[in-house]
Amino acid sequence: MSTFGAAGFWPQILTWLPFIVALAAVWNGCNKSISPFLVVTALLGWWFGLLTLLSILIFAILMGLAALQPLLPKRFQIAGHGVLVLVCLALGFQLIPGVDKLNIVSDAQIGPNSEKFSYSIGLEKPFIFMILLVAVPWVRENDHARDYRTATVALLMLVGVFLVSLAAGFLSFEFSLPRWLPIFFVGNLFLTCLPEEAFFRGYIQRGLASQIGVWPAIGIASLLFGFAHFAG
């Protein structure tokens, strides 16, 4: 692993650039144009020691399976979704061998009252987003009116929780602008939050909602999300 600012850090982070381009292409429905970007990602990852040949082979097989999912006969769809869920969980829990992380910061304390903080980025979670977009394209379908309402309610709840936490003393302000903050912000948003939301909300919740209704689906997806993050 390389740490932010250490020799070799900046070349290694280039591994994610072609992958992000491939994600953008899939998001816009240009699945046939992503192969060169994925090949470049694999080569860079291997060159910088972030991926082994075994992990590259596994990722290639998973991409192939994802591409087959929409083509499965209806009687095999449930089994296909079961495999897809297991694949996403294996990626999310970092069970794929031969995948290293790029360490952004280790045991950093950004202020005298702050807890020590470590952050690294990997390819497993963004790859979840990739295979979901390929296997179940409907995860990117939006009901904009409902999305705006949901976002408004979520924002109000977030502000409420934040204010209550401040009042209870669980949170306190400690202003700091560490130099790794931009990478943390972009990486956490696009390489962690988006894949997790795509899996739990876009895939699990939306898929369940079509079968059992919206509110039960929200409850189940929320419980699964909380359970997955129970350890921190």
UniProtKB/TrEMBL annotation:
It comes from the Bacteria. The keyword Electron transport does not apply. GO terms for molecular function: endopeptidase activity. One of its GO terms (biological process) is CAAX-box protein maturation. Keywords: Membrane, Transmembrane, Transmembrane helix. Residues 179-231 form the CAAX prenyl protease 2/Lysostaphin resistance protein A-like domain. The chain crosses the membrane at residues 7-26, 46-66, 78-97, 117-139, 151-173, 179-200, 212-231. This is CAAX prenyl protease 2/Lysostaphin resistance protein A-like domain-containing protein. It comes from Sedimentitalea nanhaiensis.
